[in-house]
Design goal:
- The protein is an alpha/beta fold.
- The chain folds into two domains: 3-169, Ribonuclease Z/Hydroxyacylglutathione hydrolase-like (Metallo-beta-lactamase, Chain A, 4-Layer Sandwich); 174-253, no CATH class.
- 33% of the residues lie in helices and 26% in strands.
- The chain has helices at residues 35-44, 59-62, 65-71, 148-159, 174-184, 189-203, 213-219, 228-233, 241-253, and strands at 3-10, 14-21, 26-30, 48-53, 75-79, 91-93, 98-101, 104-110, 119-123, 128-132, 135-136, 139-140, 166-169, 211-212.
- The longest helix has 15 residues, at 189-203.
- The protein is globular, with a radius of gyration of 18 Å.
Length: 255
């Protein structure tokens, strides 16, 4: 089977994703920020929307769901931990569960931190991770509900995935994230190069999402609290990775 991934810009800076089978046009949607652009892609590509996966309860990830379902009878899936604050869904899942799509198996990760109950979906056969607002391009989600400890645990899980994994995250925040990253890791040549590439891409209104896990591990400061230069710049040489991560997140909140 041949699969294709479509990145769909929604609202001011959100992304939704559609994974579909080129042979029979069956499609899986991840997140539903806004109905109109998503329905437009589905119609233009002549897709049969079978399933919708919701990463977390925030309105900019679910507000388009009702209008999408008016046109498509898809099975909706979300976090069991968020059953009380998500729209009514067909299926609720938690860490360790699996979902199927076109004979592909997706693994569910608990990636709490941005919210408590945030989940991610990983298809090992395609090397796609739909991370929502957990791991992001050159960043991670702000800690609205969870703790730094929870988020660091979540990101540590994801770092164990193959380097080739495509990180499909929920927002176009990469330029701002790059500017911040350079304030604490200006010696990183991979980061400098990526920052320049991001600036150029955005001047052309190109997406900087998805990215690869390999690139994130080289450049994303939230995945690099062990980095000696970051620790030196933050005066945290003897601190734990979790403590350095917490400091980085705190600094980004004020950036």
């Amino acid at each position: 089977m041949s699969f294709e991934l479509i990145t769909i810009p929604c609202l001011s800076d959100n992304y939704a994703f559609i994974l579909f089978n080129n042979e029979n046009r069956s499609a899986l949607l991840v997140d539903a920020p806004e109905a109109e652009p998503i329905n437009k892609v589905i119609n233009q590509k002549n897709l049969n929307l079978e399933k919708i996966f919701i990463t977390h309860h925030h309105s900019d990830h679910v507000d388009g769901l009702a209008k999408i379902l008016e046109n498509h009878k898809a099975i909706t899936i979300g976090a069991k931990a968020d059953i009380h604050r998500l729209p009514r869904l067909d299926q609720y899942v938690e860490a360790g569960d699996k979902i199927s799509f076109e004979n592909q198996t997706g693994d569910i990760f608990d990636v709490s931190g941005h919210t408590v109950g945030h989940i991610a979906l990983y298809f090992s056969s395609q090397n796609f991770l739909f991370s929502g607002d957990s791991l992001m391009a050159l960043g991670c989600g702000r800690l609205f509900e969870g703790t730094a400890e929870q988020m660091w645990h979540s990101l540590s899980q994801l770092m164990d995935l193959p380097d080739a994994t495509l990180i499909c995250s929920g927002h176009e925040y990469t330029a701002n994230n790059a500017s911040f990253a350079l304030t604490i890791n200006p010696e990183n040549p991979d980061l400098i190069k990526r920052s320049e590439e991001v600036k150029l891409a955005r001047t052309k209104n190109l997406f900087t999402v998805p990215s690869t896990l390999e690139l994130e591990k080289k450049t994303n400061p939230f995945l690099r609290p062990f980095d000696k230069n970051i620790r030196k710049n933050l005066n945290m040489i003897g601190s734990t990775d979790e403590e350095v991560f917490s400091k980085i997140r705190s600094l980004k909140d004020k950036f």
